[in-house]
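Annex B. Sample input.
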Amino acid sequence: MKVLVAPSILACNFARLGDEVADVTRAGADWIHCDVMDGHFVDNISFGSAFVEAASRHTDRPLDVHLMITNPDRYLDRYLPVAHSVNIHLEAEADVPETLARIRTAGKKAGLALNPHSPIDSIEPYLKQFDLLLIMTVEPGFGGQPFLEDMLPKIRAAAELRKKSHLDFRITVDGGINIATARQCREAGADVLVAGTSVFRSKDRAAEIAALR
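Annex B, continued. Sample output.
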């Protein structure tokens, strides 16, 4: 699969949201990643559906929404109108098959996200029910954290499971992604790279995105 780069707007300058989203679009972003945090599932509060909708007005790229929230079912309908894909956490308080089915029924890509402590075999009951597998490579909640190298075996195991099951879901990695860690993740089998700090703090965002890819 083609490797996709999805800059996370969690790392952008919120005061210049429109300009920031437009800039990474021009720089070659494939997707725009939106990390929604509720202050309950994770300790931080980031932004909500109005912010995501505002971001959508400044790009023609797909919006990849990552719901790091306790009750994704309750808020899902607020994000579906603007999202290309919606990722929910296996660890959230949700009926996972039902929520993934709701996302797909709406014509969107369904993503299943795993925190670092969740083993890869925990996704097996849900195979064929999701289009994206998002593997957290940091503890969720804050941007700018260092990459957890012990997540590389999990990425490899996910790629092996995908091959063994004859499925074509994408493997997304999120957290601490820069040029060095992106290479490790690609070699392990990841094909969607969520990069926040490395892109938005780069002096040449186009060059950074190209190097990540």
